[in-house]
Design a protein that fits this description.
By secondary structure, the protein is α/β, with parallel strands linked by helices. It has 14 helices and 9 strands. The chain has 2 domains: 84 residues, Winged helix-like DNA-binding domain superfamily/Winged helix DNA-binding domain (Arc Repressor Mutant, subunit A), CATH 1.10.10; 243 residues, Rossmann fold (3-Layer(aba) Sandwich).
Length: 356
């Protein structure tokens, strides 16, 4: 490569930027360690703690904690007090890193991101041959991390905001409706709806048998197994008819054939029923997604979602940043008439579709 004209300031700035990115990649693993070992939870009181004190609280070795805490301070996750040689986890950071029930919790996101990165070696071959990598082929941390990450958002928004934004759906759920949750994973969304609407019945559907087994355990633990069932099936061939609501929670873009899935949903709906899509937030143009949230989603799309779709019949590969217009096009082609944005958050789009 012949280089004749270099802006040294731009070069130096990009080197710093590249070093920051490499540090972020390393810190993602360190955050997962901190979560797994209970280090953030041990610092959640917001008080200064030395490596020795944190070792006493957690049983971890002080020498490792000295390095881990310094890395966390350099990453801006904890604050270092040089006079006391102690570290503080600010309360705002604790809501993200130390409180599993917090609506702002992101430890599941780090867990799933680390699992996604672990697939890198196999994806090099997929980039060359065009084959996919199925959800079932990933490390189990991807499944559990995704459950934790999505559940934090669903607990906050699903019952309080998203379902009420759908036309007449809450009234049906309160009276007693039949709901299909397609691509349910470990059943977080299915179980939340069942807890909120005891008069209704819910069917969770996923092709991944391991996830369905976990979902059944989760439903029993939550005390809703009497009104929730789970089946191993594909999105285009699940059983049942007369559903008042068919929902896809962060799953539609992962499908190999979303058009076939939408057509199956249309055929399964009762008269007056609704289709609900909860999808990662995305604008319709690439240039409008070039921001921190878009970067996160494009990363997952490259490592997980697009390979997952390419591993299935249809190979549609919508991508995690498909955008509202592209999603609506699929639903219109499947026979749905009205498609509207019912709700949104900084991380999610919620679309409602109805048959003509």
């Amino acid at each position: 490569m012949a280089i004749t004209d270099i802006d040294e300031q731009k070069l130096e700035a990009f080197i710093v930027h590249a070093a920051t990115e490499a540090g972020a990649a390393l810190n993602a693993a360190l955050v997962t360690l901190g979560d797994e070992l209970g280090l953030y939870r041990a610092m959640a009181d917001g008080q200064p703690v030395t490596p020795a004190e944190l070792a006493a609280r957690t049983g971890a070795q002080e020498r490792y904690l000295r390095e881990w805490l310094a890395a966390q301070a350099a990453s801006g996750f904890v604050v270092y007090d040089p006079e006391a040689a102690a570290y503080v986890l600010p309360p705002e950071h604790a809501l993200v890193l130390a409180d599993e029930a917090s609506p702002f919790s992101m430890t599941g996101t780090f867990q799933s991101a680390n699992a996604a990165v672990a697939a890198r070696a196999r994806l090099a071959d997929r980039f060359a041959d065009g084959d996919g990598l199925g959800w079932h082929e990933h490390h189990h941390d991807l499944w559990h991390g995704t459950e934790r990450a999505f559940a934090a958002s669903y607990r906050t928004h699903l019952v309080a905001e998203w379902l009420p934004a759908l036309d007449g759906v809450v009234a049906k759920l309160e009276a007693g409706a039949l709901v299909a949750d397609v691509g349910c994973g470990h059943g977080a969304s299915t179980i939340l709806m069942a807890q909120a609407f005891p008069a209704s019945r819910f069917v969770g559907i996923d092709y991944h048998a391991g996830s369905i087994a976990t979902a059944r355990e989760r439903a029993a633990e939550a005390g809703v197994a009497d009104r929730v069932s789970f089946e191993v099936a594909g999105a285009a061939d699940f059983g049942g008819e007369g559903y008042d609501l068919v929902a896809f929670f962060d799953a539609f873009h992962d499908l190999g054939d979303p058009l076939a899935a939408a057509r199956r949903a249309a055929a399964a709906l009762a008269p007056g029923g609704a289709l609900m899509l909860v999808e990662p937030y995305a604008a319709d143009r690439v240039e409008d997604n070039l921001n921190p949230i878009g970067r996160l989603y494009y990363g997952f799309s490259t490592l997980v979602c697009t390979p997952g779709s390419l591993s299935q019949p249809g190979r549609a590969a919508l991508g995690t940043q498909a955008g509202e217009a592209r999603l609506a096009d699929v639903l219109h082609e499947a026979g749905f008439g009205d498609v509207r944005r019912a709700a949104e958050t900084p991380l999610n789009l919620v679309l409602e579709a109805r048959l003509p």
